[in-house]
User: What shape does this take?
Amino acid sequence: MSTNLRAAKAQLREKVKNILESIDVIEKKRQSQVVYEKLMSLPQYNESRRISIYLSTSNEIDTISILKDIFAKGKEAFVPRYNKNKMEMVQLYSMEDFEKLPLTKWNIKQPAIHENREDPLETGGLDLMILPGMAFTKNGKRLGHGMGYYDKYLESIALHKKQMPYLIALAFKEQLFEDIPTNEKDIILNTVLTE
Assistant: This one.
């Protein structure tokens, strides 16, 4: 990645981080609710059985109500587990399971590293992935948090000869831009949901 591109991405991440920290809690809740309702009406969501979803932090669209819906509808949920410079998806079994998850040093809940859980790449793959990110465009460009976890994970889906899941990002309207700095390694999403 060129130095210019890296610098442009870092600059935009910093800008978005400041914007997100300035949105008040009530506004974040309101937008999260609208995005949740939009997701619920998407056929791609309703038809999916196996869904990967991130566990949200305070500066992301809240995913807890989505998680509850996944379990209520008898779908299967897979959540990220970070281990050093690698991210895998592992199965989450219920809301009780979610409540008991330990917190990482980043204050994000995730299944313990030593715990044995189903990995969708070893089994039936994923139908849908709900991705976080810092900035997006309407046509599906995504700026992640800078570690490349999701890009590497999507590459591994191809390596496992699994079908590519439908990719949806959830974002506050403040995270939507006309254009964002990307290169050919960056994934293009199918849908970016904002209010």
The chain has a mean pLDDT of 94. The chain has one domain: 3-193. Residues 3-22 form the longest helix (20 residues).
